[in-house]
Every structure is written in structure tokens, then in C-alpha cells.
Amino acid sequence: MSKPSVSPRPARFKTDLHGGAYLFSFPALFRDFTWRIADAASARVLCIDYRLAPEHPFPAAIEDATAAYRGLIAECAEPRHVTFIGDSSGGGLVLASMMRLRDEGLPLPAAAVVLSPWTDLALTGQSLTKYGLSDPMVPVELMPRAVEAYLAGADPRSPYASPLYGDPAGLPPTLIYVGGDEALRDDAVRMAERLRSAGCEVELEVWPRMFHVWPMFARILPEARAAIAGIGTFLQARLS
User: Fold this and answer.
1) What is d(CA 212, CA 227) in angstroms, rounded to the nearest whole number?
2) Widest CA span of the chain, in angstroms?
3) According to the model, what pLDDT value does residue 136 have?
């Protein structure tokens, strides 16, 4: 990971944690999405190429994500100039990383955005069954194998693996997008409820008829471009 250059004026950073079930990484496929988000939020993008399972199981990903954040605020950015964004497993990793940073006593980023977050590795969401066959982006039948590879025997209800089972008190303002017809809908909805019950500022948007991580398809979907515009508005209002 290259060190971000220091700007004479305060720089805004968007720290991106990609999806891929903690097993896959396709950085080139995320470029179209990340530049659009950077433009919408008027921020620089720092994409974290965290270690992947099965070679590097839990908690390697969260160790890499939190280390990157600590390095960023130590070298060239204040927490109030930083936001987290993540999709799918990266969305769960955003929430888990913030919980760990809070538990370590570190200042948290200004805000977070999670898209179709995977927050429950115990796989208890009813939407996995209800929409599992209709969501083209989530191979529900393979999810238990992905969990096994990532956790390598760790408890799927560990808060740092499944933030749904953690205490989110003190986390920064969070925007959650999820499709109305996607397999991880319940992971997002229940996480929003947890945040709200803990007194956190949270905005949940369930987009009708949308599938898993649809904002990635901004080149072809007007709904994706509208979602990115909404993310930009949310972040612009919270970045100083």
C-alpha cells in the first residue's frame, strides 16, 4: 500500500473495503465505482487490499483494515476527514473494524457507508432463503463454505467477524443501502436496528427490486447512479 501524499490543505479520505466473501479481490473491477464515489464525496480514495482467506483467515482482514486506518491518521489525515465505505463482506468489515478501533480507544472516522453489508456469518437471516434463488449476485449455497474458509473454526457470532452480534454504541453516523430483493437484506435491516437501539445515527435505505450491491453497476443502471449521488450527499454533509 503506497503512502498517500500530504496536501497543504486538509484532505478528505474515503477508505474503501471491498467485498468478495473475504476470499476474492478484483481491484480493477472496483475502479469505476471508486472514482465515482470519490467524485461524489470530493474525497481521495484509499483502497485496502487486505489479506484473504483461506491463506489468511480471520482476523487477518480486520487487522489489515484497522492498521491501514491507524497509519492514515498517523501520517496525513485527521479522523474527521476520513470515512469508511464497504460493500458486502467489506461492509461487515467496515462495521467490525470500527468496533475494534473504538474498543482500542482510537478516534473513529467521521462517517461510514455500507452497501448490502454481510453482518451475520452465522447465516440466520430469513432473506437468505426468501431471496436466495432470485438474487443473481449472492451464491447462497456456497456461503457456508465461505464462512468456514474465513473463520477457520472461530465463532461466527464473534462481534469482529459478525458485527450484528456486537455492541455498536459510539459508532459514527452510518448510511446503509440494501436491495429490497436481495439475499442479505436481513443482515442490513437488523444491523440498522442494532445501531438505532444503541443510540447511533443511522440511515437505512431499502431500494425496491434492487439486487446485491447494485451501486457497482453505475455504467448501466440509473438506480446505481442515483445511489452514488445519495452517498455523496451523505458524506459531504459529514466530512469537515
Assistant:
1) 13
2) 52
3) 86
